[in-house]
Amino acid sequence: MRISELFGRGRPVFSFEFFPPKTDEAASAMLPTVKDLAEMLQPDFVSVTYGAGGSTRGRTIELVSRMQSELGLTTMAHLTCVGHTREELSGILDRLASRGIKNVLALRGDAPGGVKFEPTAGGFAHASELAAFVKTKGRFCIGGACYPEKHPESPSADADLGFAKHKVESGAEFLITQLFFDSEDYFRFVERAREAGITVPIVPGIMPITSVSQIERFTEMCGARIPAELLARLKRFEHDPSVVMAIGIEHAIRQSRRLLEAGAPGLHFYTLNKSHATRSILAAVKAL
Fold first, then answer.
1. How many domains does the chain have?
2. Which of 105-109, 153-157, 271-275 shows the lowest per-residue confidence on average (mean pLDDT)?
3. Which candidate, 163, 159, 165, 166, places its Cα nearest to that of 196?
4. 24 is in which domain, residue-wise?
5. Which residues are tagged catalytic?
6. How far from each other are the two terminal CA atoms of the chain, in whole angstroms?
7. What pLDDT does 117 receive?
């Protein structure tokens, strides 16, 4: 199923994001976890990320294919510009199409090792260019990323919003936000997006906090902000993992309920391949 067809049916669209493990054996071992999570919570779709520089390309394709064919899930493959020529990207898209994959998240991506992104000769410099290229294939539903608190490399919030609009004009049929922890940031972004003429669904991305050091590293990389009160609570218990997870789950439940009550079209969970937090949050949200 094309993901764009899931929206507008009168109920929220719930989705999970996974990343490919570093070995083929670990990737196979991950499938039972995904199966258990899917059977219990019945996500509308799942996505699989794409390592820096395409380092997990083969396992990304393999995982989305197996999740779809063996588990019966609607899947979306992430695809990035990093390290690929137009011809290589065309070959990847052909492989995805041959496996029956209909959905692609078009991203610029980050260079390996934290160095500055440089476009590959014969490739693309921007996600909007990749989205436009995928659109020429005519077989895929295309998603894009957006940033309620702006991308850290964008010169301003207005410029960043312009980039999001260009992605939609280039072919993105829905947008998924970067992680954020203050729902008001999402609401302000959506309001600005609508005023700018962006009409596609904008799905909030939710990352359950399970580790203080991990979430501080993630937010530093992506430019997201942890509200001061929440950060103070986390810091107070940062050496007690069970309490940190409980605080993170509690915050994500409140955040998710607030977003849905205010009309968000769904929730996209960055699972980090950990089922407990996601299961707890979505079960609580669906119990409403």
1. 1
2. 271-275
3. 165
4. 3-286
5. 17
6. 27
7. 84
3-state SS track over the chain: CCHHHHCCCCCCEEEEEECCCCCHHHHHHHHHHHHHHHHHHCCCEEEECCCHHHCCHHHHHHHHHHHHHCCCCCEEEEEECCCCCHHHHHHHHHHHHHCCCCEEEEECCCCHHHCCCCCCCCCCCCHHHHHHHHHHHCCCEEEEEECCCCCCCCCCHHHHHHHHHHHHHHCCCEEEEEECCCHHHHHHHHHHHHHCCCCCCEEEEECCCCCHHHHHHHHHHHCCCCCHHHHHHHHHCCCCHHHHHHHHHHHHHHHHHHHHHCCCCEEEEECCCCHHHHHHHHHHHHCC
Radius of gyration of the chain (CA): 18
**Can you tell me the distance from the alpha carbon of 169 to that of 173, in angstroms, rounded to the nearest whole number?**
9
Q: pLDDT tens digits for 187-226?
A: 999 999 999 999 999 999 999 999 999 999 999 888 899 9
Q: Is the pLDDT of residue 240 over 60?
A: yes
- CATH number for position 256: 3.20.20.220
Amino acid identity, position 53: G
The whole-chain average pLDDT of the chain stands at 93
Q: CB neighbours of 111 closer than 8 A, spacing ≥ 6?
A: 52, 53, 82, 117, 118
What whole-number distance in Å separates Cα of residue 140 and Cα of residue 200?
A: 16
- 211 burial level (CB within 10 Å; 0-12, 13-18, 19+): middle
How many Cβ atoms from other residues are within 10 Å of residue 45's Cβ?
23
* pLDDT over 70 (residue 230): yes
Q: Is the dihedral of CA 149, 174, 254, 10 positive or negative?
A: positive
Average pLDDT value for residue range 227-253: 96
